[in-house]
Structures are given as C-alpha cells and as structure tokens.
Amino acid sequence: MQADASKQPRQPTLLQSFIPIILLVIALASSVYLFGDSSSYGPNQIALWIAAAVAVLIGFYNRYTWEMIEDGIRHGVSVALGAMLIILAVGSLIGTWMLSGTVPTMIYYGLELISPSFFYAATAVICGIVALSIGSSWTTAATIGIALMGIAGGLDLSLPITAGAVVSGAYFGDKMSPLSDTTNLAPAVAGNELFAHIRYMGYTTLPAFVIALVVFLILGFQDNTATDIVKLEELQLHLSNSYEISWIMLIPLFVLLGLAAKKKPALPTVFFGAILGAVWALIFQPEVVAQMADGNTGVVDQIKVAWLALTSGFTIETASPELNSLLNRGGMESMMNTIWLIISAMSFGAIMERLGYLERLFMGVLKMVRSTGSLITATLFTCFGANVLTADQYMAIVIPGRIFRGEYERRNIDSRVLSRTLEDSGTLTSALIPWNTCGVFMFSTLAVSPLEYAPYAVFNWLVPLIAIVYAYTGYKILSIDENQAETA
After folding, report:
1. Which of 83, 98, 125, 378 has the most CB atoms within 10 Å of its CB?
2. What parts of the sequence cross the membrane (predicted)?
3. Boundary residue ending a domain (335, 366, 385)
C-alpha cells in the first residue's frame, strides 16, 4: 500500500501554479514586443505552447502521467469544438455574403443613413438591439458588425473605436437577452431563475451602457476627421457599379436573424446563411460571379466560384483600393489561424485545470476574502483570470461559480448576486483577451485586435467596475433573508 501511495499525483504548490502563468505573461509580452500586430498569427500560439510545456514538466514532477495530461487536453479542446465549428461557418458566411452583395448592400444604405457624429453611439445601439433580439454577440458581430466596420471605413472614422462600439453593443444585448446561452448558464450555475437574474443584472448593465453611449457620443463629436462627401459618393458608386444593390440582397440577413431569434442551433443556422448567400449570389449577382470566374459564365464555373467563396473567401477588383481591402475576405480558410490560436489556448487552459493549478490558485483567492465587498471583487477577478487561463467564457462562469457558490450561501448573500457577478466579468471580459475564444472571434470578424479595441469597449470593462462599487457600498447586494421576504 505504501508503494501505491507514493505513485499518487501530488497537489501543486502555490508557487508551482504561478510559474506557468508568469512564464505565459512574459512570453506573450515578448511576442507583442517582437512581432507587433502580427503576434496573433503564430507567435502568441508558440507562447501558449511554451507555457503549457513548462506546466507539463511541473506535472511530471508531481507524478502526473502523460496519459492523464493528454486526457485533460482532449477534454479541454473538445469543450471549444462547437465554437471552432461556428467560426469556420462564419468564415463561409462572410465569403458568400460578400459575393451575394448582402454586406455591400448594408454598407451602401448605411452610408446614406448614419451621420458621422452619431456613428459610434448608433453602432452600439444597433448592435445592442440585434443582439438582444437574437441572443448572440457572435452572430451580431459577424453580420451587422461587419457592415458597420465597412461604413466606418467609408466615413474615414476610427476602426478601433467602431470595433469597441460593436463589441459593447453586442455584449450588452447578449447579456440582457433570455435567448443567450451565457445568460442562461449563469443562473443555472448560481442556482436561481433566469428572468430574476436578468432583472438583477440591469442594476449594473443599464447604467454602464448609458455611460458608454455618452462616451461614444463624445468620441463622435470630437472626431476631427472631415467626411469627404465626394469620397462617400464615389464609394457608393463603386458599390453600385460592382453589385446589384437592392433590399432583396438583405433577405439572407433577415432569414439568419429570424432563425437565431427562434433559438435555432447556431452552427446549422450560420452555415445555412452561408449557403443561402451562395445561392443568392448565383441568382442576383451574375456579373460578380463571372468576374471571379475570369469572365466564364458556364454553370460549372459559377458553382465553382460559390464553392470557393465558402472555402477560400471572396476576391474582387474594383476601381477603389479601399473597397477592395474591405470586400476581399472570408472563407473557412481565413479562420484557420483563429482555430490554431483557440486550440493552443484551450490546451494550455486544460493542462492548468487537469494538473490542479487553477483550483490551487482560485482557492487561494477565496482564503483572502474577508468581507462581502472583497468576496464579490474576488469573484470578478477570478472570472477574469479564468478567461485568461482557460480562454473560454463558459469556463469563466462555471469554475468561479462552482468555487464561490458555497461561500455566498454561507455569508447569506442571494444567488442573484453571484449570477450577476459571474456575467459582469465572465461574459464581458472574454472579448477583451486576445487568445480567448471570444477575443479571437472578434479579431477574425472585425479585423481589429482586442488590444486595439479594448480601450473603446467601454461597456465591457465599465460593468465590472460598477459591480465593485456596488460591492463595497452594499448597493443592491441582496441577502437571502431579503429575497425570502420579497417572495413571501
């Protein structure tokens, strides 16, 4: 029996748990310093692999076998498989919607309707309404968000600020929608009811969104970029010369949003939207299809073009270089670097969880909690840390929820406080981390790095700050006894 006990894995020390994190921070900082904007195209992945390798070596020292570690990696990557498949489908969607004229039509009409001074605030509101309706920040960014980024380019407005407004609006709507998966997950983990959770989230979410809109209005009025009306007219002219512009081109968008609003599964919904875009292109954009086919108009050549839009993306040559850079994108192939980053990040997170490093770190945080304010603040930072270490917003809700739920009950704090706190940080900070699945998705969709748009994603970082203020002032921190009195 003594020999068997000596072969059992040992729990890591706090120092051992910190070593991979410290190394990861150093490696990622070095990656950004050495490679700049291109760090997400390989260097960051290698940084994650180096930190993971060191974590594995420490695991070997603690008597973990490679089979144990490999099983953890397999499980961790499988958690993100659904997200990776959706990302591939979104790549196809972008390619065919560029080919079909769906996104160009949204850009064309948007250039007519949106004023530059109100553009950033309008972007946040539009994305908020769409995300609230369909319950998906990803779908909102991949559809309306792409068009708004194109409009910003046409108006010579800041792309990082626009991306920040898209992310702010998309996550506001996602967070407050009963159709959202994270909005359903948080109360399930904390142990309360969905609509009670949504109502209670309003105390931190609504003030933050109002403040964000004020900030976007100020940024819009302070933007000194003079919009060249002639340039806008030229851009619209290039669009109308290259595409058949009509409201009919928006039908794939309406179909996709309708399916999402009915809570149809995301993967088949997005891929159906991509296929519908390809069909729309063959029916309504024969000249664009023929241009991609080098002037060939045969049925086989047209089908090949639609197929390539799904796989390799869309390419077109117009008289406007700016328009070319905006439209030439998409395809599953364009998402492969994104998949690489997600696999690398999820593998690192899975290793950290399987070897006990995350539990050791987060339980250490719990031991430092002294008051209700410090408990809520610790929950917020733990959710953020889980987003950094596991690269997945679902893990950033489930792991802290599992760790802190008993402590909230012990301190007589209502479960709605916990579920709100999990969303205030677990959901919202995920899009601010470059290697998190949400940050990677936004980068691959909006073509702006989270490091660039994070300062302007006002809503996403303001909500946790408001939650901390509430925590230490006691405002809207409901106790279990108060909840029972309300429902009695």
Report:
1. 98
2. 12-34, 46-64, 76-98, 118-139, 146-172, 200-221, 242-260, 266-284, 339-358, 378-404, 425-447, 453-472
3. 335
Helix (H, G, I), strand (E, B) or coil at 15: helix
Give residue 16's pLDDT: 92
CA-closest candidate to residue 321, choices 243, 452, 231, 389: 231
Do 354 and 275 reside in the same domain of the chain? no
Query: Confidence band (pLDDT; 50, 70, 90) for 6?
Result: low
Q: Give domain status of residue 4, yes or no.
A: no
- 454 occurs within a structural domain: yes
| The predicted structure's pLDDT at residue 434 | 87
* Cα 89 to the center of its chain, rounded Å: 15
Which of 372, 97, 74, 465 is closest to 250 using CA atoms? 97
pLDDT value of residue 178:
80
Q: Domain residues for 239?
A: 82-335
Instruction: Note whether 48 and 435 are within 8 A (CB).
Output: yes
Q: Are the C-beta atoms of residues 459 and 172 closer than 8 Å to each other?
A: yes
Helix (H, G, I), strand (E, B) or coil at 369: coil
- The answer, yes or no, to whether residue 227 has pLDDT greater than 80, is no
In contact, 105 and 250? CB cutoff 8 Å: yes
Residues 132-155 as b/e (b if ≥16 CB within 10 A, e otherwise) read: bbbbbbbbbbbbbbbbbbbbbbbb
Distance CA 99, CA 108 (A): 15
φ/ψ bin of 42: left (φ > 0), alpha (ψ from -120 to 50), beta (otherwise): left
pTM of the full structure: 0.77
| Domain shared by 52 and 97, yes or no | no
Q: Do residues 348 and 55 make contact, with C-beta atoms less than 8 angstroms apart?
A: yes
Backbone angles phi, psi at 476, to 5 degrees: 55, 35
Question: CB within 8 A of 422, min separation 6: which ones?
Answer: 186, 189, 190, 379, 383, 397, 400, 401
Q: Are 108 and 250 contacting, i.e. CB atoms less than 8 angstroms apart?
A: no
Residue type, 484: Q
